[in-house]
Amino acid sequence: MKRHRGIVPAFLIAAALVAGSTDIAVADVPNNIFRFGGAWVVPNGDSDFNDGTQDINFESKDGWGYFIDYERRLIPWLGLDFEVLYAQPDFEATAGGVTTTDSVAVWQGNVGVNFHLFAPSRFDLYLGAFAGWSDFD
Q1: Cα end-to-end span (Å), the chain
Q2: CA-to-CA distance for 66 and 83, rounded, in angstroms?
């Protein structure tokens, strides 16, 4: 899974180059949309099994992640969207009354197309089709 590690920095550099391009006129600023913030990550997993000697329970815990998103509007109602999310949810393993907790770094990237329903108004709803990848460290 380490082979995907270079994708995230390359994406962030590409997004910064597009956003910071001197070819983008001041009047074009509404066509470049940046979003960032927190995301509640819900792995939602709980599994019980027996290894032949004892019962073992694995459980994932919910937690916070962070995302950055860039959308370039091609025309008022259609935009290309790029997003990267990072989270580090906790996982617990319980065996024989002993609980061990560890966390896993999760990187997720999405690329898609947004169709804006109310493009010329201050209120905007959009639908999108996306492709994505995830990397667990």
Answers
A1: 7
A2: 11
Q: Quote the CA–CA distance of 42 and 130 in Å, as a whole number.
A: 20
Give the strand order in the sheet containing 32-41: 32-41, 63-75, 78-87, 106-116, 126-136
Beta bridge mates, 53:
none
* Overall pTM surpassing 0.70 (yes/no): no
Residue 82's nearest CA partner among 21, 34, 134 is 34
**What residues pair up with 102 in beta bridges, in sequence order?**
91
- DSSP string covering 95-133: ETTEEEEEE--EEEEEEEEEEETTTTSSS--EEEEEEEE
Question: How many Å apart are CA 109 and CA 7, to the nearest integer?
Answer: 9
Token pair listed for 44: 């939602």
For the stretch 2-54, pLDDT in tens is 455 555 666 666 666 555 554 544 455 678 889 999 988 888 778 888 888 88
The token pair at 53 is 């000697």
* CA gap 97, 17 in Å, rounded: 53
Rounded-to-integer distance, Cα 96 and Cα 57, Å? 10
